[in-house]
Amino acid sequence: MHYEETLDGIRRIVREYLAGTQDSIDTKDMRVPLMVPCYGEEEILQVVDSLLTKRITLNQTASNKVGAFETEWAGYIGTSEAVMFNSGSSANLIALMVLTNPGIENPMPPGTEVITPALTWTTTVAPIWCANCVPVFVDVDLETFTMRTEDIERAITQNTRAIMPVHLLGYPCDMENILRIAEKHGLYVVEDCCEAHGASIDGRKVGSYGHLSTFSFFFSHHLSTIEGGMLLTNKVEYAEIARTMRSQGVMRNAKDKAFENKYLKDERYRNIDSRYLFVNLGYNLRPTELNGGFGLEQFRKFGSFLDARRANASYFMKSLEPYREWILLPRLKTGIEHAWFALPIFVKENAPFQRRELETYLNGKGIETRQIMAGDITQQPVMELFGSRNEELANTKRIHQNAFFFGNHPMIGEQERQYIMECFREFLARYGVADRVISSHR
């Protein structure tokens, strides 16, 4: 049987199987998980194609799937270079390792301080330690959950060399002021965009501002490669170092001829097979062709995924508006396009209920919730093992205590949205506030 006939047969089987797994919604037993994988036959067939052709691992050619996905994502974000990894965590690690690498001009020395928000995820912080640097934690804004720029400048010392903003839950940081501060003090900027696919400021995508930026393509994110991540930059040298470090430090993964020739034309290395010429520190952080193909198909659907998240968020924000006496909601500033990784809820201290009560009620109704990422990272046990410097973190501590989020993904439709808001109203009815809320919403 020819390859195309084989693939067509598999396509029919996959299509029939997927059609049989599309269960109807049972409103009596509604479940709203934080995330549901959003892929179909196209992604599955990309994986099958790689397995059947046995082109499964990273192969740095113009026609490979990983390379094609890198090109697509760089073009979308607006950078010249993109390097895919096996995770967003790995992309963060290599971003910091590039800036501390002795092969670049003006590398960050050991003990360098990197300013980052205390409200974050561990894989923003761990790479700072791994690069032999010191995280300096600053506070966040209560209405955006992103780092306060006024706190950044106060935290700068003679040891500060970088700022690592996190576009948490898809809300863009104040990049104009962050870049102004960075330029004033000669600092590197590494954007962690792992939850902010498609977010923008005045039409410019996050991920295009920093010296380096990173994205995650884990299955719960806006666009998935099952597992995967990306490092973006406009500096060829940074990208080439990242490519070599991604794959054991070997030069054959480089794309830039000038970078290659620096070693190939050096007489000292003429007796070394160029396929095994190790030019830098290296790991095995490669994605597979299965991940690359999956990403290509997801990218074709990404616009609809992002539209669905924004439509859901608009509904929730409008429906929750009457509760603002007790619930603090995100405040969208002019020019901001939020990516809405999830819907954050901050229960104010004057509310007649506590965050845990509302969470417990929602969970009991099948609506999955979780804390805001790692919460206040300075309160986590890992902090007892590694050093940091902490600024005043009043807002971060309040968010740690009073905030959570529920899912906002493309599989949430009209019935799920209505069900979630019905559960909010039922909970508030316990405190005699439902009638006031409903009347003000009319």
Overall average residue pLDDT = 93
Q: What is the count of helical runs?
A: 14
Q: Summarize the main sheet.
A: 8 strands, mixed
* Radius of gyration from the alpha-carbon trace, in angstroms: 23 Å
Question: What is the chain-wise order of helices and strands?
Answer: HHHEHEHEHEHEEEEEHHHEEEHEEHEHH
Shape: flat
Order of strands, main sheet, comes to 1-9-8-5-4-2-3-14
Quaternary structure of the protein? single chain
The share of residues in helices is 40-55%
Number of strands: 15
Describe the structure.
The protein is of the alpha/beta class. It has 2 domains: 45-292, Aspartate Aminotransferase, domain 2, CATH 3.40.640; 302-441, Alpha-Beta Complex (Aspartate Aminotransferase, domain 1). Helix content is 40%, strand content 13%. The chain is built from 14 helices and 15 strands. An 8-stranded mixed β-sheet has the order 1-9-8-5-4-2-3-14, with helices on both faces. Strands 10-12-15-13 form a 4-stranded antiparallel β-sheet. A 3-stranded antiparallel β-sheet has the order 7-6-11, with no helix packed on it. Helix 7 (175-185) links the parallel strand 4 and strand 5 (188-192). The longest helix has 32 residues, at 289-320. The protein is flat. Mean pLDDT is 93; it is low at 438-442.
What characteristics describe this protein?
Aspartate Aminotransferase, domain 2; 442 residues; 4-stranded antiparallel β-sheet; disordered C terminus; Aspartate Aminotransferase, domain 1; alpha/beta
